[in-house]
Every structure is written in structure tokens, then in C-alpha cells.
Amino acid sequence: MTNPCSPSSPSSSSPTSAHHRRYEEPAAAAAPYVGNGGRVDHGISFPAAVDDVEGAELSPPRCEWEFRLAATVPSPSLAGASEAIGSVDFDPAGRLLATGGIARKVRIYDVAGLPSSPSPAACICVPAKLSSVRWRPEEGGRRAVGCGDYDGVVTEYDVERGVAAWERDEHAGRRVWALDYAPRGAQTSMAASGSDDRTAHVWDPRAPSGSWATARAGGAVLCVEFDPSGGPQLAVGSADRRAAVYDVRALGHGEVASMDGHARAVTYVRWAPARRVVTSAADGTHRLWEWPSTPELSGPAREVRSYSGHVSGRSFVGMGLWRGAGLVASGSESNHVFVYDLRWGKPVWVHPFDVASDSSPDAEGFVSAVTWLQGDADCGGALVAGRSDGVLKMFTCQPRRGDDHQVDEL
Fold first, then answer.
1. CA 372 to chain centre
2. Which of 24, 38, 243, 305 is geometrically suited to a Cys-Cys bond with 259, CB 3.0 to 4.6 A?
3. Within 10 Å of residue 164's Cβ, how many Cβ atoms?
């Protein structure tokens, strides 16, 4: 999310606005690597089998993927206009890409046409700055994208008609930081939102004005994500430096798992296979967690590994997980895209974002949003990254053949 605000402390629930900035206190040092006891996550289809994850960490990181720049979408506005991209998301079919940010527009791109035609296929004007955009799983052929905005409203837009289908204003006007839908095939239709009011709401998007369930946090709720496998779990991260997993069937019963260890606000949560979650925070680290496999047990999750190299101290820089390949991507305040393999704590691919031609060489900017095209690792994938000046880049990602597995970095 491009969330330009600056809370006075990591646990603040009511940040004040600044320009493309969020955290002002000095960043904490990254935590050291914590081993995972040697248990491999067999749910992740790694290109090369790893029988001992802890042993893999002791070996040098290697990049088993070939990344190629496939398309560049220039900033749609003139120099000086604010076009910071805060959120990007592929539709469930992988054919469309939605972007949103502080320009008060949802832009829809045809993924197949991006290399030759970088102009948006559709553009929906919205009344407020956006912190989150998320495609709703298709129902009856209707395409819809949900948005969370700075005015505290969640709105779902009909993409074909370009109009709002419904809106929900149940966070008392406090900024909505995050939005997610339960995947198609889940036990029931659900949506969730996280807000400055220190709550995550779960409700039925078929009846958005109806009742909802609430999970409460110790700070602004900055990120939410349903289990993409269709399970009844919801992961939540907040400004009090914590993340937690809830069972949506019993939100009032409290956390199923808690994740404590970040030094600053948790800005993103993403599900990995086999009861694991990756969190990202403004302390410059991503972390992989797991918790007991017995559903009846609840308590602290165990940190498996910490990932560091990118810079994230004051701005939301995005984080995404390609579950089929075990790859974590994020932006950075250093104006680079970083990719980590879940098996190693250091990046396996680092790519600089070129400064826009109409910007000064020392123009301030950073990579502010990322997303993966989910799919089978054997078939390759795609990574999209957006910058704080509105530029988008799409990279294709294919398994490398042979022994050419060096780390790709500056």
C-alpha cells in the first residue's frame, strides 16, 4: 500500500498524513536467523527438492529462476502529479491487473496486451485515495474489484459498468488499510477489512450492509488475508508489531496463533502452504512462521526464518508470495525489487527501478507495491511491481535450466 502517514509510535492507531511516508522513528535492526528444526514444507513445489530446510540455509543462496522485463507502463500523469501506486492485484484468472493509489483511480490493464499496449483498458474514478484494491472471486461471470480508502469506506465496483455496486462504511470514518475476499471454493462467501480503528471486520459481501464479526488488535490493522486454500483462517497484522491468525467461525474466541518478533509495525501478511504465514514489517524484515498442526491447539507461532536486504523503515513497499514456487517479493525504499526464496534469508534476485526520465537524478521514490501471478511453478509466472511515481513493470519468471543458479543482484 502507498500509505503516506507517520504514526508517532509503532503502536499508534491514528497516523497523521505525510508525503509517501509512514514511519519516522529509527528503524530497528533485523533479527538474526532462527532455524526451523529441519522440517521441510512439503506443500511448496520448489524447483529443486530440499530435504533439509535448515541445511539449505547453511548453503549459499541461489537463484533458480530467470527474470525478464516483459513490459513497462509509464506514469500516466505529468511530472509533479501524485500517482503513487499503493496496491496491485491480478484477477483470479490472471487476465486482468488492477492498480490503485492516491490518484483516486482504479486502473484496469489487459495483462496479455501490456508489452505492446501499456494503456489501461478501463479506468474507474473513485472519491478518495485508495490503500487497497482486491479482485472479488467471479460469481456468475460478473467482474468486480473491491477498494479500501482513506475515508474509511470499502467499495466494490462493477468493472464492466465502471460504477459502484455497493459501499460499506462501518469503520466509523477511520482509514481502511486492507481488504481481502475469501477464495472461490471457501466454505462461505466472506470479505475482510482492516482499519485505523484497531479492528478487522469479517462480513458477507453478498449482504455488505448486514451484520459482521470483529477481531480487535492493539493498533491499527494494516493487513488482512484469508487462507487461499479455502480454510477458515484469517491472518491479521497491525501497528502494535504483532500478527495473528483467527478462525473466522469463532472470532470472539481470540487468536489461533500469535506472531511476535517484529520490531515495528506489521504491514503485510501472506499465506504460505502447510499452516505457515509470511509477515513483513517496517523493521526491514520479512518473517516465516508456523504453528502446531493440531487445530485444537492455539498459542505462539514459531519463527522459522527472517529475510532481510530490502529497505523498509518509513514507507509501505509491498510484499507478495508466489505460493507455488516459494518466492517472496517486495519493494524497497532503495528503489529496487527484491525476491527471496523461502529457503534462504538473503535475496536471490535484486532489480533496480529506473528513475523516470522527467525526474531529477536524485528524485525521491521507491518501489511501493508488488504482486505475483499465481500458478504452477513448472509453467513459470509473472511479477508486477509499482513505484511511487506511478510506473509499473512486469517481469516474467521461468525456471532456470542447467547449473546456472547464481544470485542475481547489483
1. 9
2. 243
3. 15
